[in-house]
Amino acid sequence: MMINLKRFAVHTLLLVALIALIYVPSFALISFTGKATVAENFSETARIGSVPVSGLTRKEAKPKVQEAVTSWSKKTPLTVGTGEETLPIPTELVTFKIEDSIKAASLKKGGALQVIVDEAATEAYLATQPITYTDEQIKTFKTWLIKTSEKLEESNFDPAETAAAIDPAGEVVSSVTFMTRSAAEEQMIDAMAQVDIKAGQLMNVKTYGMDPVAASYIGSKLYELFAKTPFEIVERMPHAQLPDDLTLGYDVKIDDKTDFAVRNTQAVNYQVIATKNGSDVTLELRGTPFKETVTAVLEAEKMIPYRTITRYSATLSAGTSSDTQSGAEGKSIELYRVTKSNQGEVKQLLALDFYSATPAIVTKSSQEELPPVVTPPPADDPVDDSTDSTTEEDTTPNSDGMTDDSTDGTTNDGTTNDGTTTPDTPTTPDQPTAPDTPDAPTTGDPASPVEDDSTEGAVG
What we know:
This is VanW family protein. By secondary structure, the chain is an alpha+beta fold. 23% of the residues lie in helices and 25% in strands.
């Protein structure tokens, strides 16, 4: 029996096609079913960043990671500063890409929590800090911020610990020289032989001595040292009246309630070095040179005249006065910090010191001054025959035998020889007084002759 090869081939093809139509869909269905049953949960050791997502699906892992990020943000976990003086860093500087992190994570091992830094917000934040970061430190800060946020850790960024903060050269960026005057000042200088001031750290004078006079003097020299730097003057109080040993414009008062303190505003460390040569002292600030040129300028010095106050006192003798208080002129001056950079010159007023004038006080007597008593000198009057002041030696007897040369027969005391009193002046100068009507005698009988006048007849 002959086989028709052509027909056999056709039937074989039809059989193969029929088998393919039956089994290919079955295999596809089996393959799809097998995929549907593959595990889509994270393994027991899987983590997204530091958040465990064991046994969770990708969809279930998202709210758990979000919850962990929110809880971390509320703790204020990030700070910046040196030692105990730290400032919070807002977590808004970083953005978490949670959904992208879960999608990219392995179900077996998990994956990293993807974080990006907001460049503009970070630069704005660093610009508000009390210290100035170098470009290298800004880069280091951003790297630290990402690594810490990825692990949702709590950490502090200390710029003083970065490699850029260490300057082995230690160039002199500011200096001042002066002479010590007491043992207390020398002890303070010995304590300042080498003082480290880390980035953002404070330095205050009372740490090195508590004697008010010595501390005020050394504090004024430190004020002059730091005025020529970008360091922040945190605390400084002038005296009410400028002491003779302090420089006008750099006056610092230190006592139980006041101190002098500065802050290192740079992101690098500096050192205050004090060297002595007998009583001669040099204070130096050493470290990385500043980006800008900083100088201190004293301007607008003025002298204020004093006034004189007059007071009155009853305890002083009339017409006297005393200088109770000497007057002293007042003073005022302005201290500026001038910063020059590529952007130009910035002039900042650091302080305006004003010392009021001390008035002069003069105390005068409040008692009324009596007019002076004038005593006239004795007068040497010449003898005048026309007056009534002749003496017995100057008299000569008249025609009637009288020893009085007056017309009325009166004596020097104004009485007549017969004992009667005559008026000083006549009532009528042109008419003489009648001699027949004399005044009644004060004593004796008017008809009897007056003693020593026996030759004179009776009047009337």
